[in-house]
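Hi support team,

I submitted a single chain yesterday and got back a structure, but I'm not sure I'm reading the token output correctly. Could someone confirm the output below corresponds to the sequence I sent? I've pasted both exactly as they appear in my results page.

Thanks,
R.
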Amino acid sequence: MISSDEKIEFLKKLVEIYSPTGREGEAVKFIVESFESFGVEAYVDEVGNAIAIRKGKGPRILLAGHVDTVPGIIPVRIDDGVLWGRGSVDAKGPLATFFFATLESRANVIFAGLVDEEGFSKGAKNLDVPRPDYIIIGEPSGVDGVTIAYKGSLTAKFVESVEKVHGSLGVNAAEKLINRWLEIKSSFGEGFNALSGRIAEFHAYERDFDFYGEMIINLRTPPGYEPPDDWEILDFVPAYQVDRRGALVKAFVRGIRRNGMRPRLKKKTGTADMNILGPKFGVDAVAYGPGDSRLDHTPHERISLDEYLLAVEVLVDVIEELKGTKSRVVEESGDMEIGKGLSW
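Hi R., thanks for writing in. Yes, this is the structure output for that exact sequence:
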């Protein structure tokens, strides 16, 4: 067994490597070399993801977390059992949990440390690995929680150009964009099944003979949402929700209970790589990991080391239970396809 001190030291070193989106290379290298030091095959794929493969018993499980963080340096320190640092919660704590669950479970596991999650999810969209039976995404759900749903994310661009008139006359481009935003915002609501969002960028200025304005918005979209046809869509990832009655969710519920806690099933108003990888592979996906998601992206980002260590135990328990389920994916002539006639 790997000691608690080793697990804490790994997480601390990973958090100490500053890896905002687009600068993940050093952290990816650290992860790959760490796997190799434990005798596990690992490599960097074509888009920069860290991939490790652990062959074992049972169905194939994809553990996919992200290496990148939002910008902003928080001095790394351990104070009274709490690790402070950018990415400690979102999402290097969950990623380190996946690292050690891969090593300790001895199951049929693919580990993926993904790049660009805080950007446009280049790592998830281009992930090229054998099709898994189950997907677990590394995001802070709390050690006793499992996330079964995320809202979608829509990024759209609006441009207005108005012929210049005297300032006392007419409506300029900036005002038109503001009115467009207020019209969109009027449909907002609260909760998982409502639309919400923000203005991400806004630029307005005068050119030779016109007023010009540009606005980029990001909306968090509920299940079933379809953007208007006349919008310029920069990126759209639909909402995702897994069936709580499936084997994957049930394994987490039992695993959390076995470790002395009451499980919580969560629906989050953010968006994660779960929205991409679940539909991409056509199998059930949930998100799990230690940490308080309310600290994501804040200058107060920190994680309880006891919670982190317990999350490793929970995840190993879950993987051990999933080893007893039947694979839904079979291989024929080297091709992956959904298995026929298989049941849970």
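A quick pointer for reading it: The longest strand covers residues 152-163. Let us know if anything else looks off.

Best,
Support desk
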